[in-house]
């Protein structure tokens, strides 16, 4: 009799257990409390990943899958559900993400969605492409920029510009960003990739992909690499990931506040000197000579050197203005304005260059040089 009751109780337990399992279908309703410990199987995850990457192999998340499959990286970030989560953050509307989107909908009780969720700063495909094009548009000769393409031809992104560049579909965006950003000078296009890599811990073993991304000093005002011109328009100031402005000569980088102050003062002085060289210097030199002097070749040499200095200073100011760097452009304007205020204030107007009256004065000086007593 006891054995019969035991058998009945066991049968009842099995029946109740099966009925509970039948009601707790987490694939249909993941909001049930009984779904807390539900796990989507690795086999199903891999099947969905294969479907997604078979349709769109160039997705950024597929590059992460390739890295994990090649065992060049490993760790928690390589768990199949985490890799699937990365893909579905990027392309949630694809058929391969239908089950994942259902399981991890808002309010889900499935803990796996958080414990094996996507990387907090994982890049989308569009975001990764934009970053690569941003880098290659300004640094087209870098390794990793060789397959920027446009229809029916290859191109250099540095020449075409961002709006006209795309990447070949065979590009692995993970490998490409790793090549462009790891152990290279800090660039703004690498910020997103750096944020993603910072999500990974030592246990993720992603060093082959993330390596050591050079971190700019938060107190620095540029990245230590020089440029003579900002190609994307006037820049008011530089940030830690921007190239440093080169002040006329190679190696004269404006990479500190003190150097900026010195460059501004120097440029203002050059602007004042330019006006002085055009307006007062020729007359001062002429007046320093005795009246009706006997002209000899030395006078011509001095005149040549004076004109050479005028032209050199003028072109130096032009180069500084064409740097598209606001502090230098403003300094050029201030220097020229102060020069006119100091040396030409009696003329009652401000002008950029010598006008017809000044040309006449200089022509007279030339005539004086040519017509003097020999």
What does this structure look like?
By secondary structure, this protein is mostly helical. It contains 16 helices and five strands. The chain has helices at residues 2-23, 42-55, 60-69, 80-90, 98-103, 112-115, 125-138, 157-160, 173-181, 191-199, 207-210, 257-279, 281-287, 297-321, 326-343, 356-371; strands spanning 148-150, 153-154, 166-167, 226-227, 244-245. The chain has a three-stranded antiparallel sheet, with helices on one face. The chain has a two-stranded parallel sheet with strand order 4-5. A hairpin with a 2-residue loop joins strand 1 (148-150) and strand 2 (153-154). The chain starts with a helix and ends with a helix.
Contiguous uncertain segments of 5+ residues: 15-22, 149-164, 354-363, 370-374
Helix count equals 16
Strand numbers in spatial order across the main sheet? 2-1-3
First-to-last CA distance? 146 Å
Find the count of extended strands (DSSP E, 2+ residues).
5
Shape: rod-shaped
Topology pattern, helix = H, strand = E: HHHHHHHEEHEHHHEEHHHHH
Overall average pLDDT: 76
Helix content: 40-55%
What summary fits the major beta sheet?
A: 3 strands, antiparallel
Radius of gyration: 35 Å
Strand percentage lies at under 5%
Structural class: mainly alpha
Write the layout of secondary structure elements.
Layout: H1 2-23, H2 42-55, H3 60-69, H4 80-90, H5 98-103, H6 112-115, H7 125-138, E1 148-150, E2 153-154, H8 157-160, E3 166-167, H9 173-181, H10 191-199, H11 207-210, E4 226-227, E5 244-245, H12 257-279, H13 281-287, H14 297-321, H15 326-343, H16 356-371
Parallel strand pairs: 4-5
Antiparallel strand pairs: 1-2, 1-3
Helix pairs in contact: 2-4, 3-4, 7-9, 12-14, 12-15, 14-15
């Amino acid at each position: 009799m006891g054995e019969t009751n035991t058998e009945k109780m066991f049968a009842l337990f099995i029946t109740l257990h099966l009925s509970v399992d039948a009601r707790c279908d987490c694939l249909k309703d993941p909001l049930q409390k009984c779904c807390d410990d539900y796990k989507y199987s690795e086999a199903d995850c891999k099947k969905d990943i294969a479907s997604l990457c078979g349709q769109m192999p160039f997705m950024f998340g597929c590059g992460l899958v390739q890295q994990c499959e090649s065992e060049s990286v490993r760790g928690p970030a390589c768990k199949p559900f985490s890799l699937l989560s990365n893909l579905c953050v990027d392309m949630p509307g694809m058929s391969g993400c239908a089950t994942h989107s259902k399981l991890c909908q808002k309010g889900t009780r499935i803990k796996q969605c958080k414990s094996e969720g996507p990387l907090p700063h994982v890049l989308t495909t569009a975001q990764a492409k934009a970053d690569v094009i941003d880098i290659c548009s300004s640094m087209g000769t870098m390794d990793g920029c060789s397959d920027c393409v446009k229809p029916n031809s290859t191109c250099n992104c540095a020449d075409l510009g961002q709006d006209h560049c795309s990447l070949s579909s065979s590009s692995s965006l993970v490998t490409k960003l790793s090549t462009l950003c790891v152990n290279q000078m800090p660039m703004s296009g690498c910020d997103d990739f750096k944020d993603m890599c910072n999500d990974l811990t030592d246990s993720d073993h992603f060093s082959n992909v993330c390596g050591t991304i050079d971190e700019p000093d938060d107190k620095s005002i540029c990245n230590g690499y020089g440029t003579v011109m900002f190609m994307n328009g006037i820049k008011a100031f530089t940030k830690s990931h921007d190239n440093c402005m080169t002040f006329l000569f190679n190696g004269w980088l404006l990479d500190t506040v003190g150097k900026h102050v010195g460059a501004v003062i120097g440029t203002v002085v050059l602007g004042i000197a330019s006006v002085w060289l055009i307006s007062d210097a020729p007359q001062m030199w002429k007046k320093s000579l005795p009246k009706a002097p006997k002209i000899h070749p030395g006078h011509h040499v001095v005149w040549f050197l004076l004109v050479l200095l005028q032209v050199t200073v003028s072109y130096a100011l032009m180069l500084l203005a064409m740097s598209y760097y606001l502090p230098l452009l403003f300094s050029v304007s201030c220097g020229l304005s102060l020069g006119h205020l100091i040396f030409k204030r009696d003329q009652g107007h401000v002008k950029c260059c010598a006008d017809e009256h000044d040309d006449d004065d200089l022509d007279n000086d030339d005539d004086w040089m040519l017509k003097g007593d020999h």
